[in-house]
Amino acid sequence: MRVAGTVQVPGDKSISHRALLLAALADGPSRIRNILPSADVHSTAGALRALGVDVPALAPDMTIVGRGLGSLRASEADLDCGNSGTTTRLLSGIAAACPFASRFTGDASLSRRPMQRVARPLTAMGARIEFEGGDGLPMVITGGSLHTIEWSTRTASAQTKSAILLAGLVAGVPVTVREPARSRDHTERMLGAMGVGVTVRGTEVQLAPAPRLDPLDMTVPADPSSAAFLTALAVLAEQGELTIPMVCLNETRTGFFRALARMGARLELCLAAPQGGDVAGAVLARPSALTGIELDPAEVPSMIDELPLLACIAARAEGTTTISGAAELRVKESDRIAVTVANLRAVGIQAEELPDGMRVMGSRRALRGAICTHGDHRIAMAFGILAALPGNEIAIDDPGCVTVSYPDFWHDLRRVVAG
């Protein structure tokens, strides 16, 4: 199989969410280009409209007129977050500082995901949060005046950290967040680009009160989690090379590329101009001979979404790959540890489920079988890469679930395979 050409993958999902949320709170019009028009980002746009923000239809070049930090109004309907944990958790921080009640709902998958991780610090700041069952959705947040907080998270979580930072921003109080490891830092970078005083010292982030947010004018870089799939296809191919331009190359998001390079992948990362305070550049990938690695738990936060893909790549590497320190995978859109291992076994790969990760033995045999995605877009795309390799016969039960993050994934996958 040969890969060739240049493919522009969609805008980064994490940055797209934050661009919408912060543009809504800015003073004046923000211009955003290359926003990701995925189901999750549509959930954020819809929730903001319900809260009184005039968010236009998502478009390649769009303008949002923000009305300031105190501009949101109570929604007459539930805030439907669909399948998006980012929408729920980040908007929770904003809602906690608003003087009204907001009821958050979502689909069946999202409703099972844990929300206490944001509820605890927001409650400590003075918000009232009620769950209608367990610690998932539906959830009602009654906000108001909040007080300052210094919070240490139990796990590295950009969503929890961002919820606290956004609560402090809208409430006008200083906050400090400490993590056991550094999580992705898009919120801090974008806030800094919008004039907010944010100080980062190692794994500690401090936010100082700001009277206003300056508007944004940015192009959303391509999503490195989406770029990872086509990068994987290129390194597993037999011939050719693939270029993916304008990818977010923030170091808190490039753990996958670093791990792939350790496996022997021939990769080049070429930096370009920053966007919204974030790092961007091109990824160049070529066919490579790969060997298994042992992933250090400290590497996990910077590649948490790509771990099912890494496991699928490991299925085609020489030797054994071990992933540990990734218990967070069990509370994603699916239990990604159990689902990845079960699907690898279903197509003929030796794989072992660990409490906080997995162990995968590489093989060159033809892979055949059926994949159950459990509606999880990352699972569908990871096994879609294995399915595209010559000699494999892999059926994926729900290919349409990729719309959550990469609506044109299957089209782009076919396009880069040159023969």
Walk me through this protein's architecture.
The protein is an alpha/beta fold and 419 residues long. The protein is built from 13 helices and 22 strands. The protein has helices at residues 13-25, 39-50, 85-96, 108-111, 116-125, 158-171, 186-193, 224-236, 255-262, 307-314, 336-346, 377-388, 409-416, and strands spanning 2-3, 27-33, 61-67, 79-80, 101-105, 128-131, 139-142, 149-152, 175-178, 198-201, 204-207, 217-219, 239-240, 242-248, 266-271, 280-286, 294-295, 320-323, 351-354, 357-361, 368-371, 393-396. The strands form seven sheets. The chain has a four-stranded mixed beta sheet with strand order 4-5-7-6. A four-stranded mixed beta sheet has the order 8-9-11-10, covered by helices on one side. α6 links the parallel β8 and β9. α1 (13-25) packs parallel to α2 and α2 (39-50) runs parallel beside α3. The longest helix has 14 residues, at 158-171. It starts with a strand and ends with a helix.
